[in-house]
Design brief:
heterodimer, A: 5-stranded mixed sheet, 12% strand, B: alpha/beta, 5-stranded parallel sheet, 5 helices
Chain lengths: 670, 128
Amino acid sequence: MRENSLRRRLIFFFSIFFTLVTLAVLIGISFSHFANRSLKDSQATSIQMERNYELRLKWLTLISDIDYALHTKQNYLISIRLASSKAVFIESLNRYIEEESSRLSDTSIGYIEDFEALKPSLINEIDLIFSLMEEGEWVEAQLRRHTELNFLQRTFNSKLTLLTLNLEEERSKIVEQGSKLQGIIRFVSLSIFILAIMAAIVSLINVMRKVLEPINRLVYLAELVSTGDFKQRATSYGTVEMDTLGFTLNQMLERIENQISDLNDSIASQKEAELKLTEARKFILDIIDSMPSVIIGVNSEGIITLWNKEAENMFSLTPQNVIGKQFSEVIPRLSKELDIVKKAIKSNTKLIQNKKSYFDGDEQHFEDIIVYPLLNSSEKGAVIRIDNITNRIRIEEMMIQSEKMLSVGGLAAGMAHEINNPLGGMMQTASVLNERLTDPSLEANIRAAKKVGVEFNDIISYVNARKIGDMVSRINDSGRRAAEIVSNMLSFSKSGGDPTSLYSMSEIIDRCIRLSEIDYNLKKNYDFRKIHIEKEYEDHIPDVPCDRGKIQQVLMNIFRNGSEAMCCKNRESDTSNADMRFMIRLAYEENHDMLRVEIEDNGPGMDEELKKRIFEPFFTTKPTDKGTGLGLSVSYFIITENHNGEMYVESAPGFGAKFVIKLPCKRSPV
Amino acid sequence: MSNGVRKLLIIDDDFIIRQSLIEYFEDRSWYVLSAETAEDAIEIVSREKPNAAIVDIRLPGMNGSEFVLAVQKIHPDMVSIICTGSPDFFMGDELKSLENLYPEIFMKPIRDLSLVDSALLSMMKKII
């Protein structure tokens, strides 16, 4: 990994770059050094040339001085001029030799050595000539000058010329060498420089590639991750830094992924818990919904929080319609119960309200209301349980009535004989008495009258005068009433014969209406024919198995009761008979397979107390001479016991009374 | 039918009932016999051979229906009418099959005794 460090790479790149640049610089420096040297060399060569000329000049000066001395032949000149020329020349020669030999040029060395070899003979010759001239031997000196010295002069000149030529050559050589070297150095340093730049560029590209490519890939990865794909991982990019970055990123991603999976796990478990909770809630709601009671939850403010199926059925409102609303607004008829709810919550006790009655249209219903405060709930509230006990109440009432009647029936059966016999004695005797006092067709009467000396017609007159006939018939009426009571009481026994034949209920009703109309003429003080009768018969009413006579008795009883009630009301309020009305409805209740007969009057109606007792044996609101108090109880008994049906009354003061009779359409053993 | 006199036997343990019936039918030219018990009545039937009988059901000792069945052997020509104060009495098949027994029961108190008279007369006509 370390070998692939980007830093190392950069360091490597920069070191190569700097090395190459340094090299180029060094070569450049060396180039300038070499250039300097060749300049120096060429300068040195020029100085040499100067010295060469200078030497030549000194020589010529010396020669010319000698020639002049020879020519003038003046001795004094010799000693002063020649001595200085000779010294200058020798000094110049020595310096020349010294400088030339210090150059150590291979080509020049031979010439210098020749010069040095020439020097003593040259100095000797000059000294000889000098001495000759001093001695005044001019000819000799002249001769020597043009022979020996001339020869030496030529040698010296040629040597010097050779040296000059050599120097020229050397100089041009140095210059040529210098320029050649300079070209090479320039080329090399330029090459190195280009190489360095290329290397730098390549390295940079490499580094850039090594940096940019992973960055691009990381960017791509980051984009993928940003879309939510946490499964992506950075791969190796070949450099430490990028790999470290990738590795760190991977760790980060791993942690994110782990956290996400942890989060998912916790979400899953939370969801599962939620599901279980929902199921449990559903289960509880199912249980609550399956209750036959209305169950309504409210909080302490009376806002509805729970509304079960039965509540839905009873109030025809779905939970969506009521939850969150005020209880008393949703069910105005129970608005008073809200106080009970508050009381229950406050006192933390269960509060019960039994047999609360209310009217739904004209139908009376009963319900038990129980308010349970919710003790363990976080929010204070209560559960209101409402049980519709209308049917139970009716059944209870029916049972109470039936039991009363059965006991009356049992009593009647036991005593009927004992009462009927004396009644028979009384009434039969009264009949005979009446006959014996009033019947002229009986011979025995006439005979007996004659025997005592009275005309039977006189007896009749007397009886009429004393209203004995009426008295006897009153005895008979009383007897008949007593007999009727007994006979009605006897109806309260199970033995009644099963309803076996099928009859059309509408026909029975219509027949009863006709009979009631006739009945009026006999003894009643109201006119049934003036009562308006409305009929609402459903189509397709099945025939019902019943004892027609008994059902007639029942209907007649109801008509009589209703008529009398409406009549009393009218008498009291002094209105006409015009608004007296019976509403008769006949319907078939398919779900119970029962026939339903409703007879509704618009009489004064009944209060609760009266309604409770209406079917009770011997209970009557009429004067004792008008009713026995058995009519409705017998009717009730006929319907419930003999026909296995139902009978009840719905009424409220001022709203008339509605008698409802239900008869099963199926024959069943009684 | 000796002497052309219609004989009627009234059997009832209740004196007042019995007396009222006796008085009623005596007024209508019946020769009225009476008995308090069925046992006495059987004796009267065998001795007097009445044309008709009004029989109470509930009697001390032998009851009315037993009497009706018993007299069939002794005096089958006698027509009978049952007259009772017991509401729970029903005629059994044996009684119903008798031709000389009026098929309906008269319940006490009898409102109109003339109905009993005409029933007896119609029965007697039928038998003869």
